[in-house]
C-alpha cells in the first residue's frame, strides 16, 4: 500500500481550505479554466439547455460543478470526493450561493455509489490522476455512463512541461541526488497520465471509443514567486516531496531551492495585470461510451 499523502483523503483534507481560495466566487480560479475546456470538449454546444446529469469525480472544492451549474442550468451536478473536507467546502459554497442544481457527496472514485448506465457526462479535473488504481477509476467512470454512443467522460492530467511540475521535479531530483550520491529521478504522482499515447490507450482499454487527447494551456497567475510556498505548504504534493528526503538538513533546503529554480525559469509578467504568468499545460482525455 502506498504511503503517499496524495492518495489519502486526510492528505487532501489538510489542503482543502487553501485550494478553495482559488475558486471562491466571484473570481474564477486557476483550475476552473481547465474545467471549462473539459466541458466544452465533451458536451456539444447545442446541449447547453438540455436536462442532464453530470458526475464530477474527485471534484475537490468543486470548480467544474460550480462553474457548470451556472452554464448548464437544467443539469444536475453530482460533485463527489473522498475527502470530507473538500465536500464540506462544496456544500458551503452551494448553500452560500443558493445553487439549486448541485449535490455533493463523500465518495471514492474507485468505487462509485452510482447506478450503472445513469449519467450523461462524467468528469475528473486533476483528480483521477492521483488514484492508486487509475484503471479502476476509469472503469467506474465508464460504468456509470449511459450506453448511447453519446455519453462521454473527460479527464484532465498535467503535462511534463508545466511550470510547477518542472519546478517540483527539478527541486526533488537535485536533493535526492545529494541524498543518494547518484542521479535520482522522482516519479510524480501528478504525472500519472502525462504520456499522451498511454493516456489514450488506458481510456480505450476500459471500453471508451472515439478517444481524443487535447493539450490545453492556461497560466497560473501570481504576484510573486515567493507566494508559491504558502500556497503549497499543506499540499500533499509538496509534503510527499519532503517525505522522500531522509534528513532534516535536506528538507530544510527544499523551499530555498524550489524558489531559486522557479525564479531561474524567468516567468514573465502580464502586460494587462502585471501578474507573473506560470505556463501550465494539461492533457484532456475524452472518450465516448457505446
Molecular structure report:
With 290 residues, this protein is α/β, with parallel strands linked by helices. 39% of the residues lie in helices and 18% in strands. The chain contains 11 helices and 9 strands. It has helices at 9-13, 16-20, 30-42, 63-71, 84-96, 134-144, 163-180, 196-205, 228-232, 236-243, 248-264, and strands at residues 52-56, 75-81, 102-106, 121-125, 152-158, 209-217, 220-222, 276-278, 281-288. The protein has a 7-stranded mixed beta sheet with strand order 3-2-1-4-5-9-6, with helices on both faces. It has a two-stranded antiparallel sheet with strand order 7-8. β2, α5 (84-96) and β3 form a beta-alpha-beta unit. The relative contact order is 0.16.
Number of strands: 9
Number of helices: 11
- Strand and helix order: HHHEHEHEEHEHHEEHHHEE
First and last CA, distance: 34 Å
Strand order of the largest sheet: 3-2-1-4-5-9-6
Q: Give the proportion of residues in helices.
A: 25-40%
Average pLDDT taken over every residue: 95
The secondary structure category is alpha/beta
Cα Rg: 19 Å
**Major sheet: size, sense and barrel closure?**
7 strands, mixed
Q: Proportion of β residues?
A: 15-25%
User: What low-confidence regions span 5 or more consecutive residues with pLDDT below 50?
Assistant: none
Query: What overall geometry do the principal axes of the alpha carbons give?
Result: globular
Amino acid at each position: 500500500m502506498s504511503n503517499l499523502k496524495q492518495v489519502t483523503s486526510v492528505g487532501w483534507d489538510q489542503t482543502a481550505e487553501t485550494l478553495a481560495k482559488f475558486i471562491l466566487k466571484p473570481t474564477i480560479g486557476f483550475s476552473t479554466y481547465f474545467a471549462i475546456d473539459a466541458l466544452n470538449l465533451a458536451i456539444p454546444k447545442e446541449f447547453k439547455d438540455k436536462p442532464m446529469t453530470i458526475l464530477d469525480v474527485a471534484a475537490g472544492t468543486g470548480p467544474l460543478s460550480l462553474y457548470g451549474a451556472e452554464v448548464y442550468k437544467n443539469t444536475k451536478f453530482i460533485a463527489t470526493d473522498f475527502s470530507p473536507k473538500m465536500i464540506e467546502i462544496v456544500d458551503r459554497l452551494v448553500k452560500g450561493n443558493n445553487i439549486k442544481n448541485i449535490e455533493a457527496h463523500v465518495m471514492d472514485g474507485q468505487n462509485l455509489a452510482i447506478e450503472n448506465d445513469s449519467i450523461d457526462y462524467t468528469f475528473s479535473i486533476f483528480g483521477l490522476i492521483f488514484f492508486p488504481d487509475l484503471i479502476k477509476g476509469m472503469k467506474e467512470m465508464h460504468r456509470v455512463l449511459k450506453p448511447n454512443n453519446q455519453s462521454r467522460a473527460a479527464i484532465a492530467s498535467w503535462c511534463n512541461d508545466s511550470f510547477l511540475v518542472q519546478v517540483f521535479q527539478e527541486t526533488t531530483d537535485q536533493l535526492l541526488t545529494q541524498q543518494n550520491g547518484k542521479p535520482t529521478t522522482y516519479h510524480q504522482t501528478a504525472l500519472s497520465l502525462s504520456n499522451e499515447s498511454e493516456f489514450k490507450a488506458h481510456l480505450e482499454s476500459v471500453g471508451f471509443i472515439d478517444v481524443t487527447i487535447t493539450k490545453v494551456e492556461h497560466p497560473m497567475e501570481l504576484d510573486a514567486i515567493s507566494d508559491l510556498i504558502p500556497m503549497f505548504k499543506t499540499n500533499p504534493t509538496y509534503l510527499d516531496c519532503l517525505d522522500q528526503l531522509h534528513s532534516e538538513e535536506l528538507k530544510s533546503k527544499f523551499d530555498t531551492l524550489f524558489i531559486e529554480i522557479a525564479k531561474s525559469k524567468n516567468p514573465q509578467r502580464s502586460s494587462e495585470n502585471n501578474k507573473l504568468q506560470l505556463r501550465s499545460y494539461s492533457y484532456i482525455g475524452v472518450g465516448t461510451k457505446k
